[in-house]
Structures are given as C-alpha cells and as structure tokens.
C-alpha cells in the first residue's frame, strides 16, 4: 500500500491517477471527504485528516509500506513534513518519495527552497529509504495563461527574462510510479527537466507554431503579480514566498537540462509543442 499526500492538487492528483491506472494500491490523505470523491472513483482508499494532525497522519500511514510526500507550499511546511517523516518511520514505512524542487540548493535564502533543503536532510537522516524528485518549472504553469492567450494572444507571467526547461507533471508522475516500483531508485535524488531550455519568448513561439497564430510573451512586473496574489486571498507569507520563487526563476538567464526523464522512462520528456497539442481546446476557446 502506498500513501499519497497532496492528491487533491495538480501534482499529487496526477501521481494518484498514474498509480491507479497501473493497479497499484493507494491510499490518499485528504482534508475533505468530498474533495476525495474523484480519487475514490479511481479506486483509492480515502483517509480523512489534516497533514498537521499527527494522529491523523499516523492513522493514514498504518499498513503503508511506501509513501509519497507532496505538499502545497506554506509557512508551516517544514514542521509538517518533518512530522510526517517521523510518523512514517514509526509506522514502518520502508520508502519515502518526496517532491522537492531543482531550485532547492544548500545555502539558499529563499524560504520555499530552504524548506525543501531542510526537509530533504531530515528524510535522509531518518533511516528510511528515500527518493527525492526535484523537478523545475512545470509546463502546467502555462495553463494559467489560457485566458490571456484566448483574449489577446499573450502569455503573461512574472518571470522577466527567465530561461526555463518546462517539465510536464505527467512525466513527473510517471517517474514517481517507476521509482516506487523499482528498488534501483532507492536513496537517489533526481533532477527533472523538460527536453529543452527556452526563454519565455521562445516558449511563446512554440505556442504560435501549434496554434497557428502569433503568441507573445509579456513579462508582468513582480509587484503587479504580488497584487494579484493578494487580491485572490493568499496569506502574506505565501504571497511573499511565491514572489521570491518567481524572482529566483526570473534571474535564471541560462538553464541546464537533464536527461533523467529519458533515462528513467526510456523516452524523451514531453515537449512544449506536445503539451499545447494535448491541451489545445483550452487555448483555442
């Protein structure tokens, strides 16, 4: 049995779908039973509880021999992830897979990457087998641009002159499935990227090619982005942390791709062009 956290989010949800599609028994920990309804339809066992609730986490881990730790970024994330790790050890979990990020490097002052670094270190010291999954900029971030692409043929992101290697969540989920089912991946950190490094202007050209019309990249000022996040009701810590993340990405004017997805999956990672083709309905309107 594999316990998956964060399964009502984009990445955790894709991991749950990937595992269920291959008939791998899973249990998901959700805060709201109604939000878990779709996961139950996949065949997942549903455990109800908050990740911050030690008793609920311990109950959800009973009988699980593996776990996937995926969390939305938050102020208490490190405390919660450390507690989850300790509960997993106590429950006899043999293998813990953590979703981290490629931007999480020792010595960083950025709050989200720093939490990932500290959580990874806690897991490595726990005595459990582990695998760190460390993707970079998700291609699915372009789904947020669907409205402006349809309205004005623009991709509006607060990423300045960034160069990114868009990485499809579906590839990440498939890597996680294989990592969980093959002991060759124990105690390994995997940096995952898409097939090519692109400026956002170059990414817009990929959209143009598939959609058959010119799509432009517009660099939104970070402070404008901050106002948007505040208006949708995100707490101040999250607003500041997300803006710091975007600044960190925006400062990267070069990007090194990895061949990890190719090596693990035996195929090339999903390109931006293929991603647009797969989601063309939302961009054409």
Q: Give me the CATH fold name of the largest domain.
A: Rossmann fold
CATH superfamily of the largest domain: NAD(P)-binding Rossmann-like Domain
Question: What is the radius of gyration?
Answer: 19 Å
The biggest beta sheet is recorded as:
7 strands, parallel
The total of beta strands comes to: 11
CATH-derived architecture of the largest domain: 3-Layer(aba) Sandwich
Reading off the top of the CATH hierarchy, the class of the largest domain is best stated as Alpha Beta
Give the strand order of the largest sheet, numbering strands 1, 2, ... along the chain: 3-2-1-4-5-6-9
Flag low-confidence runs: none
Coarse shape: globular
Structure report:
The model has no long low-confidence stretch (mean pLDDT about 90). The protein has helices at about 10-20, 35-40, 55-60, 75-90, 110-125, 145-150, 170-180, 200-210, 220-230, 235-250, 260-265, 270-280, 280-285, and strands at about 1-5, 25-30, 45-50, 65-70, 95-100, 130-135, 155, 165, 190, 200, 215-220. The chain has a seven-stranded parallel beta sheet with strand order 3-2-1-4-5-6-9, with helices on both faces. The protein has about 280 residues and is an alpha/beta fold. It has two domains: about 1-135, 3-Layer(aba) Sandwich (Rossmann fold), CATH 3.40.50; about 135-170 and about 195-255 and about 265-285, Alpha-Beta Complex (UDP-galactose 4-epimerase, domain 1), CATH 3.90.25.10.
């Amino acid at each position: 049995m594999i316990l998956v956290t964060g399964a009502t989010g984009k990445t955790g949800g894709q991991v749950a779908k990937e595992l269920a599609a291959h008939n791998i028994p899973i249990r998901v920990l959700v805060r709201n039973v109604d939000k878990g309804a779709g996961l139950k339809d996949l065949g997942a066992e549903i455990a109800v509880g908050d990740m911050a609730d030690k008793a609920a986490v311990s109950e959800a881990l009973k009988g699980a021999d593996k776990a996937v730790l995926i969390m939305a970024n938050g102020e208490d994330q490190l405390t919660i992830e450390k507690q989850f790790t300790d509960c997993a050890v106590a429950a006899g979990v043999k293998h813990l897979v953590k979703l981290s990020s490629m931007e999480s490097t020792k010595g960083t002052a950025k709050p989200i990457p720093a939490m990932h670094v500290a959580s990874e270190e806690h897991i490595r010291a726990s005595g459990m087998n582990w695998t760190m999954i460390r993707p970079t900029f998700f291609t699915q971030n372009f789904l947020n641009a669907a409205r402006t692409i349809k309205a004005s043929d623009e991709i509006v992101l607060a990423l300045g002159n960034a160069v990114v290697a868009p990485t499809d969540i579906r590839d990440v989920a498939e890597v996680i499935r294989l990592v969980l089912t093959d002991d060759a991946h124990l105690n390994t950190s995997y940096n995952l990227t898409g097939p090519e490094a692109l400026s956002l202007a170059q990414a817009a050209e990929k959209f143009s090619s598939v959609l058959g019309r010119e799509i432009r990249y517009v660099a939104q000022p970070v402070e404008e982005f901050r106002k948007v996040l505040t208006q949708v009701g995100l707490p101040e810590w999250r607003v500041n942390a997300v803006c710091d993340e975007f600044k960190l990405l925006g400062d990267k004017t070069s990007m090194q791709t990895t061949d990890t997805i190719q090596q693990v999956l035996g195929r090339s990672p999903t390109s931006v062009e293929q991603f647009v083709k797969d989601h063309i309905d939302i961009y054409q309107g």
